[in-house]
Structures are given as structure tokens and as C-alpha cells.
Specification:
Elements: H1 14-24, H2 42-52, H3 65-68, H4 116-125, H5 134-142, H6 145-153, H7 161-172, H8 181-184, H9 189-199, E1 218-219, H10 228-231, H11 233-245, H12 261-264, E2 275-276, H13 283-286, H14 298-306, H15 326-337
Helix pairs in contact: 2-6, 2-7, 4-7, 9-15, 14-15
Bound molecules: heme C (2 copies).
């Protein structure tokens, strides 16, 4: 079920919108709270963790999920725009996977609103991602006695695509923020002042609400386009293929990311350039920021909001110039940093043993002792 709601404020006057904003802004720390942990099955998580770090899930065994979603970088990659399957380059910023299991829709444009099983399939099979034929992937698993044992222990029977698509989401459910200064209730005076501004005058909490600091809806904030996507033929080619596949008219000529228009296809184009509100947890580890990585630092993001967002005819009316003082901007950044918790880099999140990509062919995998 897709739960994306397109802006309802478009036709309401600014005064009414501001009035609604005042009613909607959450003010207290309890409105945000720690992100709930999710119960998981240990054997399925362990299988999912190995799969996440296994390069054999990509067509030419060159990249794993962790190549782009690196635990040391908050399960993002530190790049403005993502890498891609060898021979291509991406056109979106790699999002963190921390807390992604709580999302109601996935990808910057929210184009998948079902579940992580489908998101996992998309990542594996999409030609600019891992470019893998899942029928081949399943046979590769059977050639590895470690997997034969792990799929069995996880209750999935023999190695299969279906089992892999269940185990990886099970692992993703363990990637939950923990122990941030905000959750411990240990904000410094500057961070506390930043929180007051965030939830009050700056109106950030209208969209960045709840424990993950996102309402899982799409908005146009007027983030400028990243010209690198159209300047670099490798990225442009990937973008064109995507836009064509998503049914975007004029896909050869457009020079901007349509965002959630690929889902809504609003006839008046009012949803062009809308993107899902991202989580504000773990930002310390996950820059650059926005769907296209145009902002390298949190200071740049705050300057952007202070100016009332970007320049776009579809821009959400809630964004208005804020006129923050230098101290207020510093405090907002300090507050955002206080939403980052312990890095998820321990052995419970990172597969430790080497994973072979080359091995002797086993004629009948059912006969191997395990
Ligand atoms: C080549 C880099 C790359 C690889 C490899 C990759 N991802 Fe991603 N991932 C991305 C990018 C880029 C996006 C955002 C795509 C978009 O918005 O169109 C993304 C989005 C996601 C999301 C949605 C997150 C959200 O909050 O919307 C999930 C979940 C995810 N990836 C999981 C995985 C898994 C599991 C694997 C391995 C099976 C994987 N990814 C492999 C780059 C990669
Ligand atoms: C109208 C809804 C809305 C309001 C109000 C809003 N944001 Fe956002 N925010 C978004 C959306 C949507 C994005 C993603 C835009 C994109 O990717 O192009 C975003 C992105 C961000 C990011 C980048 C996160 C990342 O991982 O890339 C930060 C940081 C942020 N907002 C902080 C704030 C702060 C601080 C305020 C208040 C000054 C604020 N936002 C107000 C909707 C909003």
C-alpha cells in the first residue's frame, strides 16, 4: 500500500497554512522519542547479514549491498551521487539504511510503497544497481555449502531467491538508531536551543516529525538540481533509462529530476520535484545531503532553509525565509548532530569472515556434507 500523500496545502492561503502549521508543530521531546527496536529472528538476520556483504549478489560479483551502503558511513557512501554497477554511474544520493525498516515508502521518490522484500529485489535486479538475474543468483548460493546450511537454519529450506529476499530485510530490521544524545536526554544548551528552534519558529517538525524525524510524505523544497547528472554521460544515460522506464514524457530532453512525479503523474505537474522527507537521524555519518547530494555540509542545509528553501514554482508554502541569527543557525546544526547515535559497525552489523567469490564447481550440491 502506498501511503504517499501529495500536498493538500496548495490551494490554501498562506495565512491559513501558517495557522495549520502552528497547530501541527510538535513541541516536546516525547513527540519524537527513541526509534523503536524491531524483533527479529537471529538465524535469518545472520543469513541476511552475510548476503548483504556478498559480492556474488551482483552480476559480475564486483559489488555487494555494502559497497554502496557502508556501515562506517551510516550505511550510506559519503558520495554526492551514488556509484552503480560497473560501467555505469548513479544519479541519486545513496540513502542511509538505518531506520529504513520503519519507512512507509522507499527511494527518494517513494516509488516503492510495499515492503523491503520488493526493495531488495529491485536493488538486486535493476541493471544499474547489481544487475543480477535471480535465477543465477540462486544457483550460486547452492554452490556454497555455508549457504546451504544457513538457509536451512533460517527455516527457508534450500537456497532460494525468495529466502534471500526475506533474510536481507530481516537484517535491515536490526539497523535502528540507538543512544543519541537526544535520546539520552543529554542536550547541551546550544543543542537544546536548536531543538526549540527546530520544533518552534523554524517549523521543521511539520515534515520532520516522529521518532525518525520524517512523516514519510513527499514535498517540494526547491533543492537545486545537480548539474553533474547531465554533464556526465555515464550518469545521464542511467537517468534517461530510469526516466523512460518510469513513463516520463520527454525523457531524452528533461534536465531535472522529476521526483515523486513518477508515482503521482499529476496532470498539472504539481508533483514534479517532490521528494520523500528523509530521516534526520545519523546525519553526522551520512553526508552529502538531499536526493542529489548538492549540499556537502549541514551548515549549507541550514542556510538553504534560512533562505526559505530553493526556487521552484511547486515549492511547498510552509517554506519561508526564516531570518535566523548566526547563533540560531549554529544551534540548529548542533541539534541535528545530537540526533546521531552509536555507529552500527560492530560484528552484529558487519559480516566478519571472508566470503569467497571463486570456488570449485560442486556437481550435485545436495550431496555435499554440511
Ligand atoms: C550501486 C550502489 C548501490 C548498491 C549496490 C545497493 N544500493 Fe541500495 N540504494 C542505492 C541508491 C542510490 C538508493 C536510492 C535510489 C533512489 O532513490 O532512486 C538506494 C536505496 C535503497 C533502499 C531504500 C532506502 C530508503 O530509505 O528509501 C534500500 C532499503 C536499499 N537501497 C537496500 C539495498 C540492499 C539490500 C542492497 C543489496 C541487495 C542495495 N541496497 C544495494 C545504492 C545502492
Ligand atoms: C515542507 C516539509 C519540510 C520542512 C518544513 C523541512 N523539511 Fe527538511 N526536508 C524535507 C524534504 C522533502 C527533504 C528532502 C529534499 C530532497 O531530497 O530534495 C528534506 C531534507 C532535509 C535534510 C537533508 C537530509 C539528508 O539526509 O539528505 C535536512 C538536514 C533537513 N531537511 C533539515 C530540516 C530543517 C533543519 C528544517 C527546518 C529549518 C527542515 N528540514 C524543514 C522536507 C521538509
Amino acid at each position: 500500500m502506498i501511503r504517499i500523500e501529495f500536498r493538500g496545502l496548495l490551494k490554501i492561503g498562506v495565512t491559513a497554512a501558517v495557522g495549520m502549521m502552528a497547530a501541527l508543530v510538535p513541541g516536546a521531546a516525547e513527540d519524537f522519542g527513541p526509534v523503536p527496536q524491531i524483533e527479529t529472528n537471529a538465524a535469518q538476520v545472520e543469513l541476511g547479514r552475510r548476503l548483504f556483504f556478498d559480492k556474488r549478489l551482483s552480476g559480475d560479483a564486483a559489488i555487494s549491498c555494502a559497497s554502496c551502503h557502508d556501515p562506517a558511513r551510516g550505511f550510506a557512501d559519503g558520495l554526492p551521487l551514488s556509484a552503480a554497477y560497473p560501467g555505469s554511474l548513479g544519479f541519486r544520493n545513496t540513502p542511509t539504511l538505518i531506520n529504513t525498516a520503519h519507512r512507509a515508502a522507499w527511494f527518494h521518490d517513494g516509488r516503492l510503497g510495499s515492503n523491503l522484500n520488493d526493495v531488495t529485489r529491485e536493488m538486486i535486479t535493476e541493471d544499474y544497481m547489481m544487475n543480477m538475474d535471480m535465477r543465477l543468483m540462486q544457483e550460486r548460493f547452492k554452490q556454497d555449502p555455508v549457504y546451504v546450511e544457513m538457509f536451512e537454519a533460517a527455516g527457508y529450506g534450500e537456497p532460494s531467491n525468495g529466502g534471500a529476499r526475506k533474510a536481507i530485510p530481516e537484517f535491515l530490521k536490526t539497523l535502528i538508531s540507538r543512544n543519541s544524545a537526544f535520546d539520552r536526554g543529554e542536550l547541551s544548551p546550544s543543542e537544546q536551543s536548536g531543538f526549540t528552534i527546530f520544533a518552534g519558529v523554524a517549523g521543521c517538525g511539520t515534515c520532520h516529525s516522529g521518532p525518525r524525524f520524517t512523516d514519510d510524505r513527499v514535498y517540494n523544497t526547491g533543492v537545486p538540481d545537480n548539474p553533474e547528472i547531465w554533464r556526465n554521460p555515464m550518469r545521464h544515460t542511467t537517468f534517461v533509462a530510469y526516466a523512460m522506464f518510469m513513463g516520463i514524457e520527454n525523457f531524452m530532453n528533461i534536465r531535472r529530476d522529476p521526483g515523486a512525479h513518477v508515482r503521482g503523474h499529476a496532470a498539472d505537474g504539481s508533483d514534479v520535484g517532490t521528494f520523500l522527507t528523509p530521516t534526520l537521524r545519523e546525519l553526522t555519518h551520512t553526508g552529502p545531503y538531499m536526493h542529489n547530494g548538492v549540499f556537502a555540509t549541514l551548515e549549507e542545509v541550514i542556510d538553504f532553509y534560512d533562505a526559505g528553501g530553493g526556487d521552484d514554482p511547486n515549492k511547498d508554502r510552509r517554506l519561508m525565509p526564516l531570518g535566523l541569527s548566526k547563533q540560531q543557525r549554529t544551534d540548529l546544526v548542533a541539534f541535528l548532530r545530537a540526533l546521531s547515535g552509536d555507529p552500527l559497525t560492530g560484528p552484529e552489523f558487519v559480516w566478519q569472515d571472508p566470503i569467497p567469490t571463486e570456488y570449485d564447481v560442486i556437481d550435485d550440491w545436495r550431496e555435499t556434507p554440511n
